[in-house]
Amino acid sequence: MIKKTFIILGIIVLIISCFVIFVLATWNKSYDDTPLPNLTASTDSAIIARGKHLAFGPGHCSSCHVPIDQIDKIKAGLEIPLSGGWVMDIPPGVFRAPNITPDKETGIGNFSDGQLARALRHSVKHDGQILFPFMPFQEMSDEDIIAIISFLRSQESVSNKIEKTEYSFMGKTLLALGLLAPTGPKTTPPKTVKMEPSIAYGKYIANSVANCMGCHTERDLKTGEFTGEPFAGGFRMPPDVYSKGYSFITPNLTPDKETGKIAGWDEKTFVTRFKTGRMIEGSHMPWENFAQLDSIELVSLYQYLTSLKPVKNKIEQIVFEPGEEFPKK
Fold this sequence. Notes:
Layout lengths: L1 H25 L18 H12 L14 H5 L11 E4 L2 E4 L16 H10 L19 H13 L11 E2 L1 H8 L22 H11 L2 H4 L20 E2 L9 E3 L17 H10 L10 H4 L4 H11 L13 E2 L9
Antiparallel strand pairs: 1-2, 2-3, 4-5, 5-6
């Protein structure tokens, strides 16, 4: 009996060891065969201005790609070089936003336009490695991707070396098993998008630029997979270095009359709320960026959100004090 037990334990140890070896040997996959989009940066001032608006406004690049000790400058409305520094520690690993100024040693100065476009559209880095799906720009128009790249090229070059993202064993397992892979566009991205007050433009802002769905939809923090109804809220955001100990559960943005956060708002109330900016300290919502949205963007976003299918999903509590635990699901 003892001999059989040792044999069984030996087999289990062998299986575990083989699995660990498999994960460590295969997690660091290369996706460098992903095509580089044929998009080229411009020096046109209007295109650069559009890219700057996207980076500091609806695309909220500045909410992540700045040093942690300078985040208050962004909150104060200042426009500083995007030299990296944001950190998120979640089960798959410790993720760090890189320096995206034109510095050749620590930034994007040696990256091609195609490599930058591929990172935005296909979640593949310049070296062929995966980008965790934090950026929802896969369906962004060619015109807007060009604008962002053009703006990034125009910034002041800042030397700021950012440590690489570190995957946990869980993250490496997801990568090795193919459960975490680059996310590309599901349809052919548009060449351009008509900027006019419309549901269509609001849909574009919400899904392809501002990532409203990414936060206001329940999802698995381990894989990033969506598990709830789109825009119905319920995504749990634990405390991090930015939230000052506060935790949040995102509200339901669908027009359900009983449980929708903005269901009773008219257009003016919606626009005014965004222009008011931050009201809850520590909120993960990049209010400083979204306050920069122009009237066409805000009206379109309102029209789109109020056109969604109503989903009944009551979020009892949105803000949790430091030390206060989320309710059990």
